Amino acid sequence: MSKVALFGAAGAIGQSLAAALRAQGRPYRVVGRSADSLRRAFGADPLAEIVAWDPQVPASVRAAAEGIDTLIYLVGVNYWQFELHPELMRKTLDGAIAAGVKRVVLIGTVYPYGRAQQNPVSEDHPRVPHTFKGRMRLAQEDLLMQAHAEGRIQATVLRLPDFYGPGVANSFLHRAALAAVNGGTADLIGPIDRPHEFVFVPDVGPVVMRLIDTPAAFGRIWHLAGAGVTSQRALVAEMERQSGRPMRLRIVGKPMLRLLGLFNPLLREMVEMHYLLTDPLILDDSALQRLLGPLPKTPYAEGIRQTLAAVDRSARLAPAAA
Fold first, then answer.
1. Are 202 and 209 in contact (CB under 8 A)?
2. What does DSSP assign to residue 281?
3. Can you give the pLDDT at residue 1?
4. Which of 202, 206, 219, 196 is nearest to 287 (CA)?
5. Residue 39 falls within a domain, yes or no?
6. Which of 126, 180, 270, 274 supports an S-S bond with 239, CB 3.0-4.6 Å?
7. Residue 289 lies in a domain
8. DSSP of 163-181, one letter per residue?
9. By the 8 A CB rule, do 216 and 281 touch?
10. What pLDDT was estimated at residue 314?
11. Which domain holds residue 148?
12. Is the pLDDT of residue 322 over 90?
Protein backbone atom coordinates (compact mmCIF):
# COMPACT_ATOMS: atom_id res chain seq x y z
CA MET A 1 0.00 0.00 0.00
CA SER A 2 1.47 3.36 -1.03
CA LYS A 3 2.74 5.82 1.53
CA VAL A 4 0.90 9.12 1.77
CA ALA A 5 2.26 12.47 2.92
CA LEU A 6 0.13 15.35 4.16
CA PHE A 7 1.99 18.56 3.35
CA GLY A 8 0.61 21.29 5.58
CA ALA A 9 -0.96 18.73 7.90
CA ALA A 10 -1.64 20.77 11.01
CA GLY A 11 -5.03 22.20 10.01
CA ALA A 12 -8.53 20.78 10.27
CA ILE A 13 -8.48 19.01 6.90
CA GLY A 14 -5.16 17.42 7.78
CA GLN A 15 -6.72 15.96 10.92
CA SER A 16 -9.59 14.54 8.88
CA LEU A 17 -7.20 12.94 6.40
CA ALA A 18 -5.08 11.49 9.21
CA ALA A 19 -8.17 9.97 10.83
CA ALA A 20 -9.13 8.32 7.53
CA LEU A 21 -5.61 6.95 7.09
CA ARG A 22 -5.62 5.57 10.64
CA ALA A 23 -8.95 3.91 10.00
CA GLN A 24 -7.36 2.05 7.08
CA GLY A 25 -4.19 1.23 9.01
CA ARG A 26 -2.11 3.12 6.45
CA PRO A 27 1.24 4.64 7.45
CA TYR A 28 1.52 8.30 6.57
CA ARG A 29 3.84 11.27 6.90
CA VAL A 30 2.81 14.65 8.29
CA VAL A 31 4.85 17.59 7.04
CA GLY A 32 4.77 21.09 8.47
CA ARG A 33 6.87 24.05 9.48
CA SER A 34 6.84 23.24 13.21
CA ALA A 35 7.86 19.81 14.48
CA ASP A 36 6.49 20.70 17.92
CA SER A 37 3.03 21.47 16.51
CA LEU A 38 3.06 18.24 14.52
CA ARG A 39 4.05 16.22 17.59
CA ARG A 40 1.20 17.75 19.59
CA ALA A 41 -1.28 16.89 16.85
CA PHE A 42 -0.01 13.50 15.66
CA GLY A 43 2.61 12.29 18.12
CA ALA A 44 0.31 9.73 19.73
CA ASP A 45 -0.31 7.94 16.41
CA PRO A 46 2.27 5.21 15.69
CA LEU A 47 1.31 5.32 12.00
CA ALA A 48 2.34 8.97 11.69
CA GLU A 49 5.87 9.94 10.70
CA ILE A 50 6.63 13.54 11.63
CA VAL A 51 8.81 15.65 9.32
CA ALA A 52 9.48 19.37 9.58
CA TRP A 53 10.25 21.32 6.43
CA ASP A 54 10.98 24.77 5.12
CA PRO A 55 8.86 25.13 1.97
CA GLN A 56 11.13 27.91 0.72
CA VAL A 57 14.23 25.66 0.66
CA PRO A 58 14.40 23.17 -2.27
CA ALA A 59 16.52 20.63 -0.38
CA SER A 60 14.08 20.67 2.53
CA VAL A 61 11.12 20.13 0.18
CA ARG A 62 12.81 17.21 -1.53
CA ALA A 63 13.81 15.61 1.79
CA ALA A 64 10.22 15.88 3.04
CA ALA A 65 8.96 14.11 -0.10
CA GLU A 66 11.51 11.26 -0.22
CA GLY A 67 9.93 7.81 -0.10
CA ILE A 68 6.40 9.11 -0.73
CA ASP A 69 4.05 7.89 -3.46
CA THR A 70 1.10 10.26 -2.93
CA LEU A 71 1.40 13.84 -1.70
CA ILE A 72 -1.74 15.61 -0.47
CA TYR A 73 -1.16 19.34 -0.58
CA LEU A 74 -2.78 21.38 2.20
CA VAL A 75 -0.17 24.09 2.58
CA GLY A 76 -1.66 27.31 3.89
CA VAL A 77 -0.37 30.87 3.94
CA ASN A 78 -1.45 33.94 5.83
CA TYR A 79 -4.58 35.43 4.30
CA TRP A 80 -2.60 38.56 3.45
CA GLN A 81 0.18 36.60 1.68
CA PHE A 82 -1.66 34.80 -1.12
CA GLU A 83 1.11 35.70 -3.57
CA LEU A 84 3.02 32.82 -1.95
CA HIS A 85 0.60 30.14 -3.20
CA PRO A 86 2.03 29.74 -6.74
CA GLU A 87 5.62 30.04 -5.48
CA LEU A 88 5.18 27.33 -2.85
CA MET A 89 3.36 25.05 -5.28
CA ARG A 90 6.19 25.40 -7.81
CA LYS A 91 8.84 24.58 -5.22
CA THR A 92 6.84 21.65 -3.85
CA LEU A 93 6.28 20.22 -7.32
CA ASP A 94 9.96 20.48 -8.20
CA GLY A 95 10.97 18.77 -4.96
CA ALA A 96 8.29 16.10 -5.19
CA ILE A 97 9.16 15.22 -8.80
CA ALA A 98 12.86 15.07 -7.93
CA ALA A 99 12.04 12.76 -5.01
CA GLY A 100 10.02 10.40 -7.21
CA VAL A 101 6.54 11.22 -5.93
CA LYS A 102 3.97 9.73 -8.30
CA ARG A 103 0.77 11.62 -7.42
CA VAL A 104 -0.25 15.00 -5.99
CA VAL A 105 -3.71 15.96 -4.75
CA LEU A 106 -4.40 19.64 -4.14
CA ILE A 107 -7.21 20.43 -1.72
CA GLY A 108 -8.58 23.50 -3.43
CA THR A 109 -11.15 26.24 -3.04
CA VAL A 110 -13.87 27.92 -5.09
CA TYR A 111 -11.81 31.13 -5.40
CA PRO A 112 -10.61 30.49 -8.99
CA TYR A 113 -14.18 30.60 -10.34
CA GLY A 114 -14.90 34.18 -9.36
CA ARG A 115 -18.62 34.96 -9.21
CA ALA A 116 -20.90 32.07 -10.09
CA GLN A 117 -22.37 32.40 -13.58
CA GLN A 118 -24.96 29.75 -12.71
CA ASN A 119 -25.77 27.50 -9.77
CA PRO A 120 -24.96 24.84 -8.96
CA VAL A 121 -21.41 25.18 -10.28
CA SER A 122 -19.93 22.17 -12.06
CA GLU A 123 -16.27 21.63 -12.88
CA ASP A 124 -16.61 23.10 -16.38
CA HIS A 125 -17.59 26.52 -15.01
CA PRO A 126 -15.25 29.22 -16.39
CA ARG A 127 -12.37 30.05 -14.11
CA VAL A 128 -12.43 33.86 -14.27
CA PRO A 129 -11.42 35.14 -10.85
CA HIS A 130 -11.94 38.85 -10.28
CA THR A 131 -9.98 38.88 -7.02
CA PHE A 132 -6.26 38.74 -6.29
CA LYS A 133 -6.75 35.67 -4.10
CA GLY A 134 -8.66 33.93 -6.84
CA ARG A 135 -5.91 34.66 -9.37
CA MET A 136 -3.25 33.30 -7.03
CA ARG A 137 -5.24 30.11 -6.44
CA LEU A 138 -5.80 29.80 -10.19
CA ALA A 139 -2.06 30.11 -10.83
CA GLN A 140 -1.44 27.44 -8.18
CA GLU A 141 -3.86 25.04 -9.87
CA ASP A 142 -2.46 25.75 -13.33
CA LEU A 143 1.08 24.92 -12.23
CA LEU A 144 -0.09 21.57 -10.90
CA MET A 145 -2.25 20.61 -13.84
CA GLN A 146 0.41 21.72 -16.34
CA ALA A 147 2.85 19.34 -14.65
CA HIS A 148 0.30 16.57 -15.16
CA ALA A 149 -0.22 17.52 -18.82
CA GLU A 150 3.54 17.37 -19.36
CA GLY A 151 3.71 13.89 -17.83
CA ARG A 152 5.92 15.00 -14.96
CA ILE A 153 3.53 13.78 -12.25
CA GLN A 154 -0.10 12.66 -11.85
CA ALA A 155 -2.23 15.44 -10.38
CA THR A 156 -5.77 16.26 -9.37
CA VAL A 157 -7.63 18.97 -7.47
CA LEU A 158 -10.52 18.49 -5.05
CA ARG A 159 -12.45 21.72 -4.48
CA LEU A 160 -14.25 22.24 -1.16
CA PRO A 161 -16.76 24.87 -0.06
CA ASP A 162 -16.54 26.55 3.36
CA PHE A 163 -16.24 24.02 6.16
CA TYR A 164 -17.21 23.46 9.76
CA GLY A 165 -16.96 20.75 12.38
CA PRO A 166 -15.46 19.81 15.75
CA GLY A 167 -12.46 21.96 16.55
CA VAL A 168 -12.63 23.94 13.29
CA ALA A 169 -11.81 27.37 14.68
CA ASN A 170 -11.51 29.10 11.29
CA SER A 171 -15.12 28.38 10.29
CA PHE A 172 -17.68 31.16 9.83
CA LEU A 173 -19.77 29.21 12.37
CA HIS A 174 -17.16 28.79 15.11
CA ARG A 175 -18.04 31.83 17.21
CA ALA A 176 -21.72 30.94 17.02
CA ALA A 177 -20.90 27.46 18.35
CA LEU A 178 -18.94 29.00 21.22
CA ALA A 179 -21.87 31.25 22.09
CA ALA A 180 -24.36 28.38 21.89
CA VAL A 181 -22.39 26.41 24.48
CA ASN A 182 -20.83 29.10 26.66
CA GLY A 183 -23.21 32.02 26.30
CA GLY A 184 -22.26 35.45 25.09
CA THR A 185 -22.67 36.97 21.66
CA ALA A 186 -22.31 35.11 18.38
CA ASP A 187 -20.10 37.09 15.99
CA LEU A 188 -20.98 36.40 12.36
CA ILE A 189 -20.02 37.86 9.00
CA GLY A 190 -23.15 38.70 7.08
CA PRO A 191 -25.42 38.62 5.31
CA ILE A 192 -26.37 35.38 7.03
CA ASP A 193 -29.63 34.64 5.17
CA ARG A 194 -28.22 33.94 1.70
CA PRO A 195 -27.99 30.37 0.40
CA HIS A 196 -24.71 28.78 1.37
CA GLU A 197 -23.18 25.36 1.87
CA PHE A 198 -20.68 23.91 4.29
CA VAL A 199 -18.75 20.66 4.18
CA PHE A 200 -18.40 18.78 7.48
CA VAL A 201 -14.64 18.36 7.90
CA PRO A 202 -14.70 14.71 9.12
CA ASP A 203 -16.44 13.80 5.84
CA VAL A 204 -13.49 14.98 3.74
CA GLY A 205 -10.86 12.41 4.73
CA PRO A 206 -12.73 9.28 3.60
CA VAL A 207 -13.53 10.88 0.23
CA VAL A 208 -9.90 11.80 -0.36
CA MET A 209 -8.78 8.27 0.49
CA ARG A 210 -11.13 6.91 -2.17
CA LEU A 211 -9.93 9.55 -4.62
CA ILE A 212 -6.22 8.72 -4.30
CA ASP A 213 -6.94 5.03 -4.88
CA THR A 214 -8.85 5.75 -8.12
CA PRO A 215 -6.51 6.12 -11.12
CA ALA A 216 -9.22 7.78 -13.22
CA ALA A 217 -9.39 10.63 -10.71
CA PHE A 218 -6.10 12.11 -11.91
CA GLY A 219 -5.81 14.66 -14.66
CA ARG A 220 -8.82 16.80 -13.81
CA ILE A 221 -10.59 18.83 -11.12
CA TRP A 222 -13.39 17.54 -8.88
CA HIS A 223 -15.93 19.02 -6.49
CA LEU A 224 -17.03 17.83 -3.07
CA ALA A 225 -20.19 19.71 -2.10
CA GLY A 226 -21.71 20.13 1.33
CA ALA A 227 -24.70 18.27 2.71
CA GLY A 228 -27.11 20.54 0.85
CA VAL A 229 -27.95 24.22 0.56
CA THR A 230 -28.49 25.98 3.87
CA SER A 231 -27.62 29.39 5.37
CA GLN A 232 -25.72 30.68 8.33
CA ARG A 233 -29.06 31.76 9.83
CA ALA A 234 -30.47 28.24 9.56
CA LEU A 235 -27.43 26.68 11.20
CA VAL A 236 -27.45 29.23 14.03
CA ALA A 237 -31.12 28.38 14.59
CA GLU A 238 -30.16 24.71 14.76
CA MET A 239 -27.52 25.53 17.37
CA GLU A 240 -30.15 27.37 19.41
CA ARG A 241 -32.53 24.44 19.12
CA GLN A 242 -29.96 21.89 20.23
CA SER A 243 -28.47 23.97 23.03
CA GLY A 244 -31.76 25.40 24.26
CA ARG A 245 -29.96 28.73 24.48
CA PRO A 246 -31.18 31.72 22.44
CA MET A 247 -28.20 33.65 21.11
CA ARG A 248 -27.47 37.31 20.70
CA LEU A 249 -26.10 37.89 17.21
CA ARG A 250 -23.57 40.51 16.18
CA ILE A 251 -23.45 40.55 12.39
CA VAL A 252 -20.62 42.32 10.62
CA GLY A 253 -21.18 43.38 7.03
CA LYS A 254 -18.74 44.56 4.39
CA PRO A 255 -18.54 48.22 5.53
CA MET A 256 -17.71 47.16 9.08
CA LEU A 257 -15.16 44.66 7.78
CA ARG A 258 -13.43 47.55 6.02
CA LEU A 259 -13.37 49.55 9.24
CA LEU A 260 -12.18 46.68 11.41
CA GLY A 261 -9.62 45.83 8.75
CA LEU A 262 -7.77 49.03 9.59
CA PHE A 263 -6.66 47.23 12.76
CA ASN A 264 -6.83 43.55 11.76
CA PRO A 265 -5.07 42.26 8.61
CA LEU A 266 -7.23 39.11 8.42
CA LEU A 267 -10.48 41.09 8.41
CA ARG A 268 -8.99 43.55 5.93
CA GLU A 269 -8.30 40.73 3.50
CA MET A 270 -11.77 39.22 3.95
CA VAL A 271 -13.32 42.28 2.30
CA GLU A 272 -12.13 41.08 -1.11
CA MET A 273 -13.85 37.70 -0.72
CA HIS A 274 -17.07 39.03 0.81
CA TYR A 275 -18.88 38.42 -2.50
CA LEU A 276 -19.07 34.72 -1.61
CA LEU A 277 -21.55 35.64 1.13
CA THR A 278 -23.68 37.91 -1.05
CA ASP A 279 -23.51 35.96 -4.33
CA PRO A 280 -24.11 32.26 -3.62
CA LEU A 281 -21.75 29.72 -5.16
CA ILE A 282 -23.03 26.18 -4.69
CA LEU A 283 -20.96 23.23 -5.88
CA ASP A 284 -22.27 20.37 -8.01
CA ASP A 285 -20.41 17.16 -7.14
CA SER A 286 -22.39 14.78 -9.36
CA ALA A 287 -19.21 14.06 -11.39
CA LEU A 288 -17.39 12.90 -8.26
CA GLN A 289 -20.36 10.72 -7.35
CA ARG A 290 -20.26 9.11 -10.78
CA LEU A 291 -16.55 8.44 -10.29
CA LEU A 292 -16.62 7.14 -6.71
CA GLY A 293 -20.23 6.16 -6.09
CA PRO A 294 -22.37 7.56 -3.26
CA LEU A 295 -20.65 10.10 -1.03
CA PRO A 296 -21.89 9.79 2.56
CA LYS A 297 -22.38 13.27 4.03
CA THR A 298 -23.19 14.14 7.61
CA PRO A 299 -26.54 15.98 7.82
CA TYR A 300 -26.25 19.50 9.17
CA ALA A 301 -28.18 18.71 12.36
CA GLU A 302 -25.74 15.89 13.23
CA GLY A 303 -22.74 18.00 12.25
CA ILE A 304 -23.93 20.77 14.55
CA ARG A 305 -24.46 18.25 17.37
CA GLN A 306 -20.88 17.02 17.06
CA THR A 307 -19.52 20.55 16.77
CA LEU A 308 -21.31 21.71 19.92
CA ALA A 309 -20.23 18.58 21.79
CA ALA A 310 -16.59 19.34 20.93
CA VAL A 311 -16.94 22.91 22.20
CA ASP A 312 -18.50 21.61 25.40
CA ARG A 313 -15.67 19.12 25.92
CA SER A 314 -13.09 21.85 25.42
CA ALA A 315 -14.88 24.09 27.92
CA ARG A 316 -14.94 21.33 30.55
CA LEU A 317 -11.29 20.39 29.99
CA ALA A 318 -10.02 23.96 30.13
CA PRO A 319 -10.36 24.40 33.93
CA ALA A 320 -8.63 21.08 34.52
CA ALA A 321 -5.78 22.05 32.23
CA ALA A 322 -5.46 25.39 33.97
1. no
2. -
3. 44
4. 219
5. yes
6. 180
7. no
8. EE-TT-TTSTTHHHHHHHH
9. no
10. 82
11. 4-162+197-223
12. no
